[in-house]
Target: FdhF/YdeP family oxidoreductase
Amino acid sequence: MGRDDATPAVANIDETALTVGKPKQRAVGVPAVTHAMQIAVEQMGPVRTGETLRLVNQKHGFDCPGCAWPEGDHRSAAEFCENGAKAVAEEATRRRVPPEFFAAHSVAELATWDDFALGQQGRLTHPMLLDEGATHYRPVTWEEAYAVVADEVAALDSPDELVFYTSGRTSNEAAFLWQLLARGLGTNNLPDCSNMCHESSGSALTETIGIGKGSVSLHDVETAELVIVAGQNPGTNHPRMLSALEKTKRNGGTVVAVNPLQEAGLLRFDNPQKARGVVGRGTPIADVFLQVRLGGDQALFQALGALLLAAEEAAPGTVLDHAFVEERTRGFAEYAAHLAALDWDDVATATGLEREQIEEVARLLLGSRSTIVCWAMGLTQHKHSVATLRDVVNLLLLQGNIGRPGAGVCPVRGHSNVQGDRTMGIFEQMPEWFHDHLDAEFGFASPREHGWDTVAAIEAMAAGRAKVFLGMGGNFARATPDSAVTEAALRSLDLTVQVSTKLNRSHVVHGRRALVLPTLGRTEADVRASGPQRVTVEDSMSAVHASQGRLAPASDELRSEVAIISELAERLLEGRDNAPRADWRAFRDDYATIRASISRVVPGFEDFEAKIDVPGGFVLPHRPRDERGFTTPSGKAEFTVNELEYPHVPAGRLLLQTLRSHDQYNTTIYGKDDRYRGIHGGRRVVLVHADDLAEQGLADGDVVDLVSEWSDGERRAQAFRCVAYSTPRGCAAAYYPETNVLVPLGSYADTSRTPTSKSVVVRLEPRDR
Ligand SMILES: Nc1nc2c(c(=O)[nH]1)N[C@H]1C(S)=C(S)[C@@H](COP(=O)(O)OP(=O)(O)OC[C@H]3O[C@@H](n4cnc5c(=O)[nH]c(N)nc54)[C@H](O)[C@@H]3O)O[C@H]1N2
Ligand SMILES: Nc1nc2c(c(=O)[nH]1)N[C@H]1C(S)=C(S)[C@@H](COP(=O)(O)OP(=O)(O)OC[C@H]3O[C@@H](n4cnc5c(=O)[nH]c(N)nc54)[C@H](O)[C@@H]3O)O[C@H]1N2
Ligand SMILES: [Mo]
Model:
């Protein structure tokens, strides 16, 4: 089986408009507003743009489908964020993909289009079926669509041949029903986008503090004395976080950035809502910038721990929070002994940093009474990510930086409800208590054997053990690693079903039969038998609040996710032994009935309905944050001993990270510019240190193939323009999803099994221009 790039056919790659300029030193400001407005007006027209953007993240509006950064208590009239506006515009677009579109374009033709071309077609309007052997999708009624699913599910030998994927935009209500349907049929095969995202955070935090969620509030970030932002590009991916960091700075706090790339948003922020940002010089964000090597963070956090321990030894009683360490934690002595043997040569190799740079940050830690560490994909997508994050926790525990104002762990989530989906049970290995509660609520016996995560699901498809794939949002074919392998796996299925808002590659990489089921987005009014419905979401800081769309739906045929799931459930569960006793019709007629069930199954949701009547919603309990209590088996926070790891790259090879440009939302491409990094008009670029290019006999502007090397062979992504860029020696960067073809399915993080999208060993092979 080939493992090379065929997506889209390389013959169609047109990057003639690509230009490269100088990276920016500051983020947001007026250009961001202008750019967002341009995209919004293109997609929605001027009137709808005004109406729609007014409702984003307002207390009676809809939750922004952009990112999971929380809303503050004091929202400005335009809680403005460039990339939030772009996310909204993509959903509220006036462009449509009606049945005539599918009649005009065969699936084979669409499979040669790139992600940008597919996504730009607009909103799906009608349920579509691809019959066995057919060349084109054809429109069907909802009833016919459900019958096809029922037919394929009835033909299965076991419910474990089903895969229920979830992306993180799904509301709590829909997610709760989705997992109930899967478990009602008898499987825990519930892979989700989180497996590829913050799973390492969940794994490390659950082991060490007993809960896989962040422990800080927005106010904590704004009032912390020290915030370390590691492995994250907030200027692009969480722009509203820059307003919080601006406040941290104004309150006298210090910010340290740890990143191989000098991301504009980490350098300087021009707040578009403040006159100062528009006309002045904006706010410098990072006081210290550690340009770390890819995968060098574990070494950095161990080194910082060792320096704190050394300072404590030099002046006993002045550095550590002894009371906290003694009363609330376990394993300190072993951790301290382990760090005493830290090899500083290893630290230098792993991080690429000077010892003085690390000592400077250690001094900031010593001087800070409240420290927060924020992180995202730069820390979670490596082989040793869970170990790295355990070492982040170790460092914070030393000074008692958990469960105290201005202190804590802050994994910054991606999708706007990815955290809520997990809370609702979207996980292949929910704890026993969850199953007990679910069984009690619905009078059935849910399956207890763990299901498949994303990597396991792809392996199962490839091995013929999975037969039917159902995707609740997302773009499984494109978001997953090892594109060629994954696409072949998807094509071997009997049926692929995608519940989607917009056209994407997962619709054209299909099983023997395929369904596209169009659904309402968050911006749209969802009116059911009992009237207009609201749904709920949970942000990165465990705040749950209501979201209510107001726009007229993109088409009369659209059904809400809740309606689709409950209608499917009635048909798939009918007549089965051990089916959950659920009133699916009541669920879809009035979402409050779903919330009533949630309130009995998930702790923290008692009085759910009343709590979301309060504008801004409510914050879920979090014992480490609220009472310094730890629900680990020992009842204490766990110091852990982790062998130091970092990527070893053979001579002549580079370590590639796959990351987001400024003009994309995961696999949805808004445009072909990456303004802050100086890239315009194209995406097939690889950012490489100038000396590495020279050493390989290459120059800026040369076109190369990226070839990844793995134990089972090579993978190739064709035709990338080399860009000389500021990044540590030996490190390179290129955009996802074009480079997913290079990430081997078998290369994932220990424990969390997150694909190693931030460390892929590659060589650059010159090709003729
Ligand atoms: N506009 C927009 N917003 C988004 C998204 C989007 O695509 N577009 N996606 C959403 C989702 S699902 C997520 S998960 C988040 C993702 O948010 P991010 O994690 O910010 O996204 P990435 O582009 O993957 O960027 C990773 C950052 O980590 C750095 N990095 C890479 N490897 C390392 C490393 O080994 N060590 C350190 N210290 N740094 C490293 C990279 O240089 C880069 O700055 O954003 C969410 N928000
Ligand atoms: N190489 C590499 N791979 C990665 C990453 C990386 O950094 N590098 N990042 C990983 C991460 S962090 C993540 S989270 C995953 C993302 O994985 P996914 O969540 O699967 O991908 P998205 O691109 O966010 O999904 C976009 C599609 O969702 C659908 N959609 C949008 N809104 C809605 C809605 O309201 N309802 C429904 N039903 N559908 C909707 C649209 O049809 C759209 O085409 O990718 C992962 N893959
Ligand atoms: Mo993500």
